[in-house]
Amino acid sequence: MIDYLLNIALGYLFGSIPFGLVVGYLCTGKDIRQYGSGKTGTTNVLRTAGPVAAVLVLVGDISKGVIPAVVGRYVFEDNGVAAAGAAAGVIGHIFPVFAGFRGGRGVAVAFGGVLGLTPLWALIFPVIAAAILIPTRYVSLMSIIGTAVAAIILCVASILWDVPPAFALYAVFAAIVIEYMHIPNMKRLLAGTEPRLGQGGDRPATG
User: What are residue 204's DSSP bridge partners?
Assistant: First the structure.
């Protein structure tokens, strides 16, 4: 149990590091949570601070999932501990203790968790994401559909192949959390008011 607690603490605290908030402020002098979606993730950093800042934040946010997953697998040598740490990274990113519990939606962190848990299966998901994002230019739609598909794939892989059940449970947990965080986006998509990739950075935050 102590291994679980330690890695969950690591995941949450590392996930709470507000890379988007810090990089956004360094690049613009502004709190990016006051603009665009009001979140600290890569998409809103791209809208408000530009592509270089967005790439830096993307790498940082992915690492929030990778690190606790890798620590769980290779330090604690336990798949459940690894999955729990990665899940805590997602929660830390969304509700960061170091940034007033106002973070992002967790998509990049969730992918980082999959990358740290099962790297070969993780290679499929950027292809799925690109297949949705390129024709539509809706990052939110990519996130909504992509995370659900990823969870289904890992569940099937857990049943038919060698993916540990704990990793599939992590994917389901991350998908549920991310779908919940995207409810406002779903409403805007249905209303036709959701901004496409790179748009909406100059408007006041809408959530």
Answer: 35
Q: How far apart are CA 58 and CA 108, in angstroms?
A: 7
Whether 41 is covered by a domain: the verdict is yes
Dig out the tokens for 204 from the structure. Answer: 């006041």
**SS3 at position 138:** coil
CB 117 within 8 A of CB 133: no
pTM summary value: 0.92
Describe the chain by its helix, strand, coil percentages, rounded to 5. Answer: 75, 0, 25
Using DSSP's 3-state secondary structure scheme, residue 95 falls into: coil
Residue 91 lies in a domain: yes
For the chain, how many structural domains are there in total? 1
How does 117-131 read in b/e, with b if 16+ C-beta sit within 10 Å? bbeebbeebeebbee
173-200 per-position pLDDT tens digit: 999 999 999 999 999 999 998 888 766 5
